[in-house]
Amino acid sequence: MDRHQSSPSQPAVRSPVTVVTVDDQEIFRRAARSLIEAAPGFVQIGEAASGAEALALVAELQPDLVLLDMRMPGVDGLETARRIALAESPAIVVLISLADEPLQPTAMASAGAAAYLRKQDLSVTTLDATWARVRAADQARSAR
Amino acid sequence: MESSAQLVRRPGVRDDRQSVVLVACGVVAVVATAVPAAIAAERPLAVAAARAAMVAVPVTVGVWIWLTRPERRFGLLLLTAGCGWLLTTLAESTDPTAYTVGRAAGWCVEPLLIYLFLAFPSGRLRTQADRVLVAAMVATVGLLFLPRLLIASSFDVPSPYTSCVRDCPPNALFALAEEPALLDGVLRPAGVAAVFVLMLAVSARLTTRYLRATSLGRRALTPVLAVAVARVSLLGVAVVGRAVDPTADVVAVAAWLLALAVPVIALAFLAGLLRWRLYAGRALERLAGCARTLTDAPTLSRAFADALEDPSIEVIFPSGGSDRRWVDAHGAPVTVPAADSGRCLSEVRERGRTIAAIVHDRALCADQTLLRGGVALAAMALENQRLVAATDVALREVSDSRARIAASAERERRRIERDLHDGAQQRLVALRIELGLAQRLAREDPQACAARLAALELAVDETLEELRALAHGVYPALLVEGGLEAALRAQTARFAIPVELRADAVGRYPAAVECAVYFCVVEALQNVLKHATGARRVVVSLAGADAATLRFSVRDDGHAGRAASGDGVGLRNMRDRLAAVGGDVRFRSDPFAGSELSGSVHVGEDRAERPQQGDDPLAA
Question: What is the ipTM, given to two decimal places?
Fold first, then answer.
């Protein structure tokens, strides 16, 4: 398994960020796959088409980052994020959706998600920037 | 009171004219009677007054009844009797011929009087017993009294029709040498016995009738029956008394009482009819008062019983079967009263159809006006009740349908939003991401970028096609541009099973109508795919030849499964959709001959050459 074990004391040694994408739409998953492939420092290690599939996959693969679609039939994104957090997985969850309105930070926080990204804003740059931001926040929290 | 009075009174004869006719009749009768009667030997004035009353009162009352009652028969009979009593006045004459005619008239008028008693107030004999009694009275007069005109030298006195008690004129028709033994041996005793027995029978019959009458019948009968029983009893006693001792004072008194009973009888008829009329008016008024507020059948039954003061009155209804059975207000079977049970059944009809019947006392039959009025009110109340119920059902149906249409529109909007979200929007987002990647690639590897952009072209085409299909599902552009026939032709051309489209004189209709019919046909075609197993051919027909109605049908040759039972959600949607534009849809399924969905929309004058702009097709 390509598990990434980063440490603040060893910033030079940087293995790629492992990503699991969760979305019920095949079209979007395909696009996300291309994006992560093209993004340096990121590697997609799994894809899930539903909340239930995602929970099993996250538990199995222990990814660094989960790109989680909010709107899915059955267990939706927020609920999946909540369950991932409950499972005390170290994975950082970034919620994504097509919504016009940005997600309320409180709703995002209560679900245990680290960030929210609109699907239409996804690009190599935003992925990089978001990861840097959530990673820093995560480390700051761990340090406390 | 005004309205019920109009119901009872026959319009046409005005009050002032009536009064003139009545007064004239009375005066003529008084003069015609009093003048000859005034020649009586003893107390001529009293005799003249008595004879005038005997004729003038019945004639006037008879004419009044004849003028005002819907059943004029009784009035006419009373008038005839009055004329008979006018003839009896001749018995006051000293001339043998006039005297003989007067005495004969006295006999002849008796059966008529019995007829009047028994036929009050309708003027018709209703039972066999009544007819037998009248026939017996006619036979008695014909066989035991009228022959005396030939074989008796003189008539028995005292008589109610003459004040003469001794030295009376002889029988003008007597031509024999002496009275035959037949007269004293048979006719006189037999006549006395027959009259006595008949009077007893008539009294018994009238008493029985009174006792059997409802409170309703007794109102009219009381005055008449009281006088009638007294009169016939008195006649029976007087005839026997005269046979025993003609000179007895009691016989003379009885004769005068019988004479004076005549005007009293006429007044009793009048009083009975007035009481009946007043009562009928009040009953109708009471019924009319509650007819508007009656809500159900038991209340109607009770209202009738209360208004006509007859608790046994019942409103019953046809059971709906072909065997003419009846049920009561609570749905329990009812047996129709037998012909001789004293109760009868009056049917309530509305537009040629029996909607109910009233089971009532036979006495009520005597007043057809009251009965007809009651029946009309019952029909009105029942019709009102039916309309209220029908309106309730229709309103509930409209409200349910409206709710279903709203829910269906809501579902449809959600579906469109979901389709857009899951389809075109996802594709566009993916395109956006891919474009970003292509942009990065352009700097590093322009060749790979060109290949990527070519792939994106395909993705754009796919997105466009998906948006086109979605838009078509919402409202096919061809329906707006080419109308129903063109849109359905395009739709059926793509269908999985061969479809034959038969269109006859299909023009353009309001957009809402075209849209409703289009989606019904499309849904019916989808149902054929889903439910009709083994369907090899579908025929879609559109018929617009009837300018007022657009008809359509979708027929297949498959075997309809249980799902196609005709009461599913799909059919209800179609029904709601069509109902919203004034149409309806029916589903018929035959396990061996396939299924057919047929519908029609009333297009009336709205038929348009072009669909109206601004119509919202989704609103249907």
Answer: 0.82
